[in-house]
Amino acid sequence: MIMITGASGVVGRAVLKLLPRENLAVAAVTRGAGSAVFPEGVRAVSGDLFRPGWIEGALDGVEALQISPRATGPGLGELLRIAVKQGVRRVVLLSATTVEHPAGEARFAARFQHAEDLVRDSGLEWTILRLADFAANALAWAPQIRSGDVVRGAYGRAATSPLHEADIAAIAVRALRGSLRPGSTHTLTGPQSLDQVAKVHLIGAALGRALSFQELPPEHIREGMLAQGLPEEVPDRLLGSLADYAHRPGPTTGTVEDLLGRPARTFADWAHDNVAAFLPAA
Ligand SMILES: NC(=O)c1ccc[n+]([C@@H]2O[C@H](COP(=O)([O-])OP(=O)(O)OC[C@H]3O[C@@H](n4cnc5c(N)ncnc54)[C@H](OP(=O)(O)O)[C@@H]3O)[C@@H](O)[C@H]2O)c1
């Protein structure tokens, strides 16, 4: 059996779409098993991973575990100890490129580094996937695009090579099955460096509309996020990394193509696949 943490997140959902096709039993951890909607055949497991003492029994028969550090938080060390005790064989960690290509406040990269250290020292077979900016982060623009043709944001020239979640999932599934070399670290990015202005244009192209990006001062964006009730950590994380990517673009690697044997999906592909999210409700 494969167990996915962060199962209702962007990567978790993409992996859960693929796994049932692989004829593997799958368990998905969520804090809201009552309300979670997972694909048919996926067993929902309910619990808080920040305090994972409850998970012992749920790990019986689990061969591989996918870890989202945001979902496991400070509980990761304990979760790994229980996993070893319960006979789990392998672990796949969703880390971030900021571990090797610093961007944003150091404390965020340090959390990923800490998670990597715990996984490497766990005694389990491990694979670490260092992930670039997700293409799906552009969904934050959906409310603006549904109601108009201008996206307002900070650091329009901040550039990353955004990753399609379907490519992350395809590689994660290979790692979960044990098809990637144990003890390997892979830096995954999309195929093309794009700034925010270009991303907005590509979403417009997928929609058949001319969209534009309007630059606003970062403080304005921060205040807007706090006014929406978001914790300070969200603008700290977002604006800190955008400020750095405006001066030095995030990395671009060919690892997705090397591992999958076909080109990585582009941001234009992602925009096309997600057009519905940007359309006004009918
Ligand atoms: N976004 C990016 O650009 C980016 C880049 C590099 C790396 N990453 C990392 O990649 C990982 C996956 O990201 P993602 O966007 O797919 O996931 P995510 O949106 O961060 O979601 C993770 C899921 O974690 C679950 N969760 C949160 N707290 C939990 C707790 N205490 N106990 C159990 N579950 C908890 C939530 O599910 P429930 O509400 O169902 O419990 C949530 O849906 C994250 O660790 C993220 O930091 C992201």
Provide the low-confidence segments as ranges: none
Q: Based on the coordinates given, report the CATH architecture of the domain at 2-135 and 164-188.
A: 3-Layer(aba) Sandwich
Strand percentage, roughly?
Answer: 15-25%
Sheet with the most strands, sense and barrel status: 7 strands, parallel
* Count of beta strands: 11
Structure description:
The protein has 282 residues and is of the alpha/beta class. The protein has a domain at 2-135 and 164-188: NAD(P)-binding Rossmann-like Domain (Rossmann fold, 3-Layer(aba) Sandwich). It has 11 helices and 11 strands. The chain has helices at 10-18, 69-72, 76-85, 106-120, 142-147, 165-176, 196-207, 218-227, 233-247, 255-260, 267-273; strands at 2-4, 26-30, 42-46, 64-67, 90-96, 125-131, 150-153, 159-160, 184-188, 194-195, 212-215. The chain has a 7-stranded parallel β-sheet with strand order 3-2-1-4-5-6-9, sandwiched between helices. Strands 7-11 form a two-stranded parallel ribbon. Strand 5 (90-96), helix 4 and strand 6 (125-131) form a beta-alpha-beta unit. The radius of gyration is 19 Å and the shape is globular. The mean pLDDT is 96.
